Amino acid sequence: MINFIKKIIENDFFNKTSCKENKFCVLLTASINPNGCYYLKRACPIIREKDYIKSIKMWLKKTRLPIVFCENSGYDISKIIKIARKYPGRVEIIQFNGNDYPRYLGTGHGEMKIMEKAMNESGFIKKSEYIVKVTGRLFIPNIVSILNNFDQEIFIAHESIDHAQKFLGSRSFIYKKDFFTKYFYKYKELLNDEKAIHFEKILYLAFENSNNDYYKSKRIFFEYYGYGGTKNIPYGDTEISTSVRIKRKIKRILGKIGIIINKILLIYIKK
Fold first, then answer.
1. Alpha carbon distance 22, 270 (integer Å)
2. pTM summary value
3. Dihedral sign for Cα atoms in the order 76, 125, 23, 210
4. What is the pLDDT of residues 97-128, one digit of tens each?
């Protein structure tokens, strides 16, 4: 019993037990050295590397999902490789030198190239039905709950939408592979931050066209842990102290244990 409780506390057991891992693959898009890319405040490679390391550790510890880490700047990722080796069969690392495009095109252009590279080369992605695309420095604490309740008829699930501005949030979204090949990818040449044709605009255009073809979409609330790159602002409880975070985690675990005990008692009462 003591060992079981210890496992719960150390591994966050309840958050990762029942996720439909075989249907989903996480794609963490990464650019450790943005190389002077415009419109980016969190640009220091050392800080960004730490962000990616923290994020990938959380994805590995708190889920059982297969992870594709695709990095486009050629930065030394030996620290990340070392972490991945501790979780055999969980992480696929793809790296290429694809960050030499004109800087005015912006981060969205680089993001598209990363997705293209991963879609073409990842074995994990080829085996999966859905891709959970996430900005690689972020973790989604409620991802297991989202995927456990995911409607398999959905073509794309997104976080936020502005129809007036024709803008679809892109920090994370979940899509069937056909969404990328049939709709999203064909607009890649339009991406140009200097002309205000951002990644989110292209994503909206692809979303709109897929909806016109009667594919199902859904808006989902994603929780975030990490920092935004464009404005360098924290999401979620990134800046909450460790002690407060531990207290919250223990409270959640005790609450879940209480639910299980109540269910067991109800079963015995019915008998």
1. 36
2. 0.79
3. positive
4. 988 888 788 888 889 999 999 999 999 999 99
